What does this fold into?
Amino acid sequence: MKRMISYIFAALIGCLCLASCAENKSAESYSDTQETPVASTAAGTSEDEIRAWPKSLGLIDTKEVSTLPYDGIYPQHEPYGTGIGAMPGRVVWAYDPDSVDWDGNGYWWESRHFDESIILSMVNDSIASLGGKDTARDGWAALFTANNSARGRNDGYVAGEKIAIKANINGSAVYDDDTSGETKMSYTNPMLLKALLSSLVKEAGVAPGDITVYDVSRLFPDYMAEMCTEGELKGVRFVNRDTGVADESAPIVWSHSFSGKVNYLPTCVTEATYMINLANLKGHSYGITLCGKNHFGSFINGNTMRPPEGANLHQWLTRNEMGIYSPLVDLMANADLGDKTVLYMLDALICAPSEGASITGDNSRWQQAPFNGDYTSSVFVSQDPVAIDSVGADFLMNEPTVTDNNGALRGDPTVENYLHESGLVGNAPSGTIYTDSQGHTVTNLGVHEHWSSSTEKLYSRNLGKSEGIELIQITK
It folds into this structure.
């Protein structure tokens, strides 16, 4: 099936507004006035004059420029932070409604509800676009090279280097040791995980034996591990709550002093050269859970069933405040978890309103365009952890199906506190000096902003500006 890449951009705004762009400033409180980026033509310039300008200037017709008013709950502001990645600040969104075919009966995760070939194409097309290339093979090469360059390594992927993939298995075996997978709660889509693994093996040239999929706070369903270790994927390793081994030479050092158990990274992380953060696009009983919170399953302490509670972390997610310390930023900044991450991915094939909700046809069919009463059938990827979570936060907060079923998110913009802290990490609103858990102060983690409107879904780089998020949509 042929697929079309829709590059949504408007260089006109960047040209017209360049002189007025201000330096990024510290986050303002929610009671302060928030600046809204200009989304129209310059004063005194007619549309006829603009259309007459030479095409060599890279200008476009004004009908492609954002003109709708901002309609979000989060206060709008200029980009915070600096975009990172092979294509800085880029987030790629692959959407294909044919990838999911579920009537709402039975378990959401059954493989018969998904088209494996379409999902693999979505992953490969996304990787190519994220790397600014035409093929997944070249895309992976660009992603590995960009990650290595950021770490002072002057090469791409080298055979034999290990990769750890953090899946989100939060909804599986939550209260007991049942690994049958017979739950309607949300966890990483097994078909998407299989497609990611296949792309790594066939396109990136990674040996299956060098890949570990892990979540050391949960147990993987048996069927999931089986389907992702068969055939060309034989050798892929799974590490769970019971098999994870703590690396006691790698304790997590938090940037804020609070009580809780000492937390250690698992050896599958510390021994890996690269990380992939495979999170879910879904609501949470604390608001939202995306790539940042996915690492609540990346450490081990004495509280085997629920390490985050043993670490005393949830207190920072329930205060409904802006300008406070966030452990999510520490996890994003961690040298082993953050610096090594070559890819951030959001599983948005079927989205849950909350981590504790049973997925049904009714509570997972989204209303906003382009879904229009159907499943989200999407995959998001980026090399910028702040950008991808910013995009995810916009989608979640502006989706009635989610907010109607999640009172913790509905009308509460403070759930984005960690995005302000991470976007402004070098001068965090809380005053926290965040480190990489190895004693080095972190000055940039990526870029945070909000889209122009829920209808247009445009960000600063889409509007021709030199900094901010660029959202690229891939449709069939």
Confidence is low (pLDDT under 50) at residues 1-64.
